[in-house]
Design brief:
Layout lengths: L2 E4 L3 E7 L2 E8 L1 H9 L5 E7 L5 H8 L8 E3 L6 E6 L6 E7 L19 E4 L4 H9 L6 E5 L2 H6 L1 H9 L3 E5 H8 L4 H10 L4 E5 L5 E5 L4 E3 L13 H14 L6 H19 L12 H15 L2
Parallel strand pairs: 1-4, 1-8, 2-6, 4-5, 8-9, 9-10, 10-11
Antiparallel strand pairs: 2-3, 6-7, 11-12, 12-13
Helix pairs in contact: 1-8, 3-5, 6-7, 8-9, 9-10
Bound molecules: adenosine monophosphate.
Length: 299
Amino acid sequence: VNLLVVGSVAFDNIETRAGEGKRLLGGSATYFSLAAAPFCTSRIVAVVGEDFTPEYEEVLTNRDIDIEGLQRAKGLTFAWGGTYSENFETRETQFTDLNVFADFSPELPASYRDSELVFLGNIQPSLQMDVLRQIDNPGLVAADTMNLWINDNREELLEVIRNIDILFINDEEAFLLTGRYPLLKAASMLLEMGPDRVVIKRGEHGAFLFGAGKNFYVPAFPLDDIVDPTGAGDSFAGAFMGYLAQEEELNDESFRKAMITASAVASYTCEGFGVEKLKRLTPEKVLSRSEEIQDLTSI
Ligand code: AMP
């Protein structure tokens, strides 16, 4: 099964209590595709600038990620900087330099049009729709979003949500988008907007899957040491979709296993700066942590 992701490829400057990193390879499409890599290859739709050197590219191609849809534009790659508070509960954005991202117009190579699983990563909702229109007959479409689009591009975002099967969203965004509380009320309103399933992420408090089938909850793996939580949400989605891509058929059990796998991979992401832990992740490591997560709640 072919998995496609559209999102950002970025250079990140990150500061946490554990240290700092400069010009680390990041972006939603990067985290997503590397998190899916233990399970399947994926196709990237994104844009980079002239400063995107072969050593960065190799982080993706070493994991067999298809970069035919990675556009090269004149100028600099999107760059972002963030600083985390001591307890990792809040993050302050230091800068967002859109650079080549400002004029990004996603264009899919012909070879991508048959993609069956699609993830519309966190970019402007109208661009997410542009990508979706270019795919012939997608079997399963998921999307992610953020408060910026909920506040500024609400109508376009609602159109995206009408056209997808799974929405990934964190709890605060779910409350912001629906104006409903508690979680179950927000979830049922999101489901009325279109998707069959909604995954509501609660950071270190785990994630819920609501909608078709039985509701499901997965805890976050309790880490001894958090280094950098950047990209945990994109990694969660990447592992979730990657897990589904290698399943023979999709039933409720597959979605529940995908949730546990996603939680396992997201926890690895937090253990290193940028994609450090993600870029070498093996199916065996994911499986062993998935079992540890299951052990946390079974008697
Ligand atoms: P997360 O920790 O899930 O919010 O994801 C962080 C990643 O998102 C970083 O690697 C950033 O480069 C990227 N990012 C930050 N702001 C944006 C934005 N406005 N559009 C697209 N990607 C972004």
